[in-house]
Amino acid sequence: MLLGSVFLISGCNTNQYNVTNEGNPSHATSSRKNLPKELPTPMIQTASGSAIPAIQGSYCWEASCADYAGTMELLEGITPVTLLVGEDVSIDMGTDVAPDEFTLVEIVDGKAHRVSFTAGSFQLAQETGIHYYGAFARWSSPEDSNVSLGDTSFAFAVHLLEKK
User: Fold this and answer.
1) pLDDT at residue 2 in the model
2) Distance (Å, whole) CA 66 – CA 58
3) Which helix (H) or strand (E) holds 28?
4) Which domain holds residue 15?
5) How buried is 160 (Cβ within 10 angstroms: 0-12 exposed, 13-18 middle, 19+ buried)?
6) Alpha-helical regions (H) of 54-160
7) Please, are residues 123 and 13 in contact by the beta-carbon 8 Å criterion?
């Protein structure tokens, strides 16, 4: 529910691109020069080297938008990656420019809460079981933070086991 609200509030608004392109066509080009043309694909990996696949969610990138279901619907039928509790996980968005906004939410037993995400990483929960995660990243114009240059959301799931 919380993640759905984050996506709804952040939303894909193609008008943001139109505003950027009106009046000063070079404005959008200069702001986007360090962002890739293709939608960023997050690389999610534990400190021990285990890769965690991400499922693409809603996005707006290069004037193209797509809306997908919420985190739990995206992950329906997905087999969670088995990991150990408390592992450090990094998320690399694969861009030269870090997103201006990044929100990570963990969902356990139907309850969502924000996860502290610092310097591109976070720590998995200490509780065993299946944990679902939803993330939202947004890049803003350096000239006007109200102008979005692109955004993306994604989800992933892990099954946490006790350390031996």
Assistant:
1) 42
2) 5
3) helix 25-32
4) 2-161
5) buried
6) 71-74
7) no
